Amino acid sequence: MTDSFDEEAEPAYTIDQYLEGIEEQELEADMVLGGDEGKECTYSKGYMKRQAIFSCLTCTPDGNAGVCTACSFSCHDGHDVVELWTKRNFRCDCGNSKFGVGFCKICPNKDVENAENLYNHNFRGQYCTCEGLYPDPDLEEQVEMMQCCICEDWFHEEHLGLESPDEIPRDEDGEPIYEDFICQACSGACSFLSVYPQIMLATCKDSAASKSEGHNVENALPACVSSDELENGGCIGDSVKAGCTEANPSSGVTVKTLEGHSETNLQLKECTKAFYTQKGVGFLLDQEDSIVEYEKVAKQKREEKLHQQETSDSSFLNGLGHVEKIEILSGISDMKNEFRSFMESRDPSRAITSDDIRQVFENLNKKRRTE
């Protein structure tokens, strides 16, 4: 009987553990949303360099439209919404022609269509070469995926084209260590990237993978230039012009983990930057486009928000009269005393439940009514 009770008991947490968990969840949300509080539609900002995007399968079941954070809250609350994390060079579609008679509650005056937006199977809730769902309703514990920095699709580690996921460098907690990841199809189309230093390569088993559908990357001519030349500003364009374009399609790379490549790219010549732009991957040279920079900005916005909250709380207290301040401090003292009394009288072998906390506040209210 006792064993059965213990199995059904609520999990026990300290207040510090609970608050730490809440803070971690808030930080994770801020990192995903880029610090966007979801108060304004981003349509007026045009095609943003990077932002959090969502797909509403209730309004656009074909998965051919994306909406910003604010519209996902205000216009699609309660709908079947797919979280896509971030997308590059995207403009909010909410309320345009793809939504039929529906309109955006925040910013109703929009163009009929955003011609520069790109869509893939992620907008239908499907990911990876296996077309798997995320979250997968058949799995109790979801499998982590990696996002390609070029096509922005997500892939399971076992579907990267490696001999084994053990080839991926990891930290002491088992988490993959990489700045940017390039999938099998994109690395085949952009094979010139293989000349980068500090890069992990995997042999491509199927050259047809580089021709898979849904990847908006032009077939790029691989350049025969050394890592030293690249680091010192060597020009990929010159190598191509010189006719050095030989490549064996059966030995293309499938996955790359680039470390610090944005800093190296700053040393490249203008003609090399033009070559990247011509091949549709000019964004790889843009430090502000990376996920690292996106999360850095999100952290800065979070710190600024927390500082504003602290300043606002301080201003609120400073604006109160002497009597109001005494009442607040007295209320805090009463709450501390009630919790201390509860902790001293409780059975330490029994977990604290929500009913216990509710009783503490009921006792506190009774005492205040009798004063």
Automatic annotation (TrEMBL):
Q: Does the keyword Zinc-finger apply?
A: yes
Q: Which key words are in the record?
A: Metal-binding, Zinc, Zinc-finger
InterPro entries given in the database record: UBR7, UBR7-like_UBR-box, Znf_FYVE_PHD, Znf_RING/FYVE/PHD, Znf_UBR
Concerning SMART domains, the annotation shows: ZnF_UBR1
Q: Name one GO molecular function term.
A: zinc ion binding
Q: What CDD domains has UniProt attached to this entry?
A: PHD_UBR7, UBR-box_UBR7
Domain (UBR-type) spans 39-109
Q: What is any Pfam family matched here? A: zf-UBR
Q: Name one GO cellular component term.
A: cytoplasm
* Highest rank taxon of the organism: Eukaryota
Q: Where are the zinc fingers (UBR-type)?
A: 39-109
This chain's protein is named: E3 ubiquitin-protein ligase UBR7
